[in-house]
Amino acid sequence: MANNPEVSTVSPLMATYARFPVTIVKGKGSYVWDDQGKKYLDFTSGIATCNLGHVPDVVKEKLEEQLQNLWHCSNLYHIPNQEKLAGLLVANSCGDQVFFCNSGAEANEAAIKIARRYAQKVKGTDQHLVITFKQSFHGRTMATLSATGQEKIQKGFYPLVSGFQYLAYNDFASLDLLADLKPAAVLLELIQGEGGVIPAEPEWVKKLEAICKENDILLMVDEIQTGMGRTGKLFSYEHYDIEPDVISLAKGLGSGLPIGAIIAKERVAKAFDPGSHGSTFGGNPLVTAAGVATVQHIVTSNLLTHVNEIAEYLDAELADLKTKFSFIKDIRGKGLLKGIIVEVNAAEIVQKAITNQLLILTAGPNVVRILPPLTATKEEILQFVKILEKVFQSI
């Protein structure tokens, strides 16, 4: 018999998160409120998930409408919202077909699976190796943590899933190994988010694409944190003048509802045939209603223009802060994914920001990660900078 919950001192939740001492109960736009009524400026966006801000009206209306009709049905039947969202993603990307799932880890699982199946079932080879990069982050499932190039993510879960090898990021010499390794695919983030907000060098990316094309290696881009307008374009690969064979998505795709996806070129997508992959909840009517509303708003409004204007304003403000505080060593990132590289403990900065009613993140021990909603205003950027300057003064 379970212990009486009234006398138990053990939380019913597993301790997989080192939670901050804040209980969020409400959100709107760039702000959230805790259970004490305190208001916080949220420049985490649910870790690049609430790209349109919290509870955006344009998505809320579509969700309320869908809630009255149908929440879920099996993927054994046609789902109109799913087909509409797939059409939007194809029309606004270099891909041809879409598979829906529930999260970023699942999207990268699907990418890994389709790469292996394409090599073995379409090309007729025994290729299965997937190349990823040091300091990358691709998820928490057994396959995606094995694909992740960070030992701290993998520790305690050995043996890892075989079939992954990590090369040095932004290193030209490492690319010379690719052809000899004969991998099925390369999977990379064009801005390593969890790994320190590190953008890929354009010339390095172009060389990587060229090698992949010459050797029939699939180029797969993890857009889970960078997609849906976060970098000032719908997808970060658009900054690099490349065309990935597979794109993985999640986070900002559903404005906070759990949805993931991969977009693939037709020749790759045909590797998935009936029974080869699936998901009970993937792309159900409710989450794809949110996805349709989200993507439609991004591509039909002036939001991306706004993102680039606000990002330029934020860049100028952060550059000014850098001149005031010698412990700021660099500012990295694109659009509204920024990393402030510091010579102090980044976690201490995040903790002090919370006490000043600002939510921000780390990306390693010495990087403060900034992820404002794409809808953030100049006034909110200025509020953020003033709070951050106050925090820096106390360090």
Defining key terms:
single chain, alpha/beta, Aspartate Aminotransferase, domain 1, Aspartate Aminotransferase, domain 2, four-stranded mixed sheet, 14 helices, 17 strands, 37% helix
Report on this model:
- The termini are far apart.
- With 395 residues, the protein is of the alpha/beta class.
- It folds into 2 domains: 24-48 and 305-393, Alpha-Beta Complex (Aspartate Aminotransferase, domain 1), CATH 3.90.1150.10; 57-300, Type I PLP-dependent aspartate aminotransferase-like (Major domain) (Aspartate Aminotransferase, domain 2, 3-Layer(aba) Sandwich), CATH 3.40.640.10.
- The protein contains 14 helices and 17 strands.
- A hairpin with a 2-residue loop joins strand 13 and strand 14 (337-342).
- The chain has helices at residues 45-48, 57-67, 80-91, 104-122, 142-147, 151-154, 172-175, 178-181, 202-214, 266-269, 285-300, 303-324, 346-355, 378-393, and strands spanning 24-28, 31-34, 39-42, 97-101, 130-133, 164-167, 185-188, 191-192, 198-199, 218-222, 246-249, 260-264, 328-334, 337-342, 358-359, 361-362, 367-370.
- The chain has a 7-stranded mixed beta sheet with strand order 4-12-11-10-7-5-6, with helices on both faces. A 4-stranded mixed beta sheet has the order 1-2-3-15. It has a 4-stranded antiparallel beta sheet with strand order 13-14-17-16, with helices on one face.
- The chain is 37% helix and 17% strand.
